[in-house]
Amino acid sequence: MIILGIESTCDETSIGVVENGRKTLSSQTASSLSMHRKYGGVVPEVAAREQLRVIIPLLSAVQDDLEETNLKLRDIDEIAVAYGPGLVGSLLIGVETAKTLALSFNKPLIGVNHLIGHMYANWLAPKSKVKGQRSKAPTFPLVALIVSGGHTDLILMTNHDKVRWLGGTLDDAAGEVFDKVARELGLGYPGGPEIERVARSHKSKVASVKFPRPKLNDQDFDFSFSGLKTAVVNIVGSSGFIVRRSAELSYEFQEAIVDVLVAKTIKAARKFGVKSIVVGGGVAANSELRRRMMVDGEKNNIEVHFPTKDLSVDNGAMIAAAAFYQKNFVDSLKLQADPCLHF
Ligand code: KG4
Ligand code: ZN
Fold first, then answer.
1. DSSP conformation letters of 51-74
2. What is the whole-number distance in angstroms between the Cα of residue 312 and the centre of ligand 1?
3. Is 96 a residue whose pLDDT tops 60?
4. Which residues, judged by CB distance below 6 Å to any ligand atom, belong to the binding site of ligand 1?
5. Phi, psi at residue 75, to the nearest 5°?
6. Which strand (E) or helix (H) includes residue 132?
7. pLDDT digits (tens, 9 = 90+) for 180-228
8. Do 151 and 168 form a contact (C-beta atoms < 8 A)?
9. What is the model's pLDDT at position 127?
10. Full-prediction pTM beyond 0.70?
11. Calpha distance 98→54 (Å, rounded)
């Protein structure tokens, strides 16, 4: 079963082709990130105009990839698209392209929730070190942590079609605080990779300030990061030597957010007795989050899965993988973008 997946919910435009939910045959992505840098965040109109410009050239690049394996676009069995949540102008471009492809090639259309797509990036198997084998798929039941610029959610999955939302952020998303704190510290956009880079240069691994770990010990599975962001803002406002201190503050901020994300995910995993944890979304590219989740997962005898760093961010292959396992068939004439889609 070969599925073509389209992703255009935010600033990336991406088309992937995946066989049987795991093997990537093609993955082509264009990002308008550099155009948003000077504004310190995504400008929806700029993103959508760029997506309109690049989507057909991307499709043509996918076609070239397929031809190398003697396949044509019409050999694809199903078309999938992320139809929400996201920016409405951006979503429309992916959704209308997918509808057109499904209608013109007479293929079934599958609607995918972008957030569920992030989880399925963990099924896209990189080649394992053992020749000819692929890495193992996550085992159910599992807890998924989705951490992106717009979302922070904990989800329990007992099977592909049994998805239960456990909790999420009450205010800012994890990626959003990385971006806001980076701006406060005079670092570039997107903030996550910048904070990670600067925090790494803080060699002493101790900090003279201690930021709060909001809701760390609460029994629920919700998050709240706005207090942590305010704590950084307050320190920056009261410090005259911010450039000198930015490494230490980035380090302590990253420690605080990773402490909370790891502790709450492990708590959920233990409470529901799951076999694995999967992490997805842009913040899943953070090396410290990856390291700490792996260490704590191992201590608790729980498998921990992260996508490769390039598949942690938005991509069409994860949408194709999600579609293979969760067949949400939709009417190609009727599918509508849903910017506020939840679980
Ligand atoms: O999933 P994504 O590409 O787009 C959304 O759907 O939002 O996530 C983007 C977010 C940004 O907030 C960015 O700062 C964050 O992911 N991010 C990181 C890292 N790389 C990207 N956060 C922390 N550490 C990173 N290495
Ligand atoms: Zn995303």
1. HHHHHHHHHHHHHHHHHHTT--GG
2. 8
3. yes
4. 10, 148-150, 175, 178-179, 190-193, 196, 281-283, 285-286, 313-314
5. -80, -10
6. none
7. 999 999 999 999 999 999 999 998 888 889 999 999 999 999 999 999 9
8. yes
9. 60
10. yes
11. 14
What is the chain's alpha carbon radius of gyration, rounded to the nearest angstrom?
20
For residue range 27-73, list pLDDT tens digits in order: 999 989 889 888 888 899 999 999 999 999 999 999 999 999 999 99
Report the DSSP beta bridge partners of residue 110.
Answer: 80, 329
Report helix angle 174-184 to 242-271, nearest 10: 170
**How remote is the CA of residue 242 from the centroid of ligand 2, in Å?**
31
CA distance 262 to 62: 37
Res 128 pLDDT > 80: no
Beta carbons of 80 and 323 less than 8 angstroms apart: yes
Calculate what percentage of the chain has a pLDDT beyond 90: 85
DSSP 86-122: S-HHHHHHHHHHHHHHHHHHT--EEEEEHHHHHHHGG
For atom 14 of ligand 1, which residue has the closest CA? 192
- The answer to whether the CB of 212 falls within 8 A of the CB of 227 is yes
Ligand 2 centroid – CA 85 distance (Å): 9
Best of 37, 229, 313 to mutate for ligand 1, by most ligand atoms within 8 A of CB?
A: 313
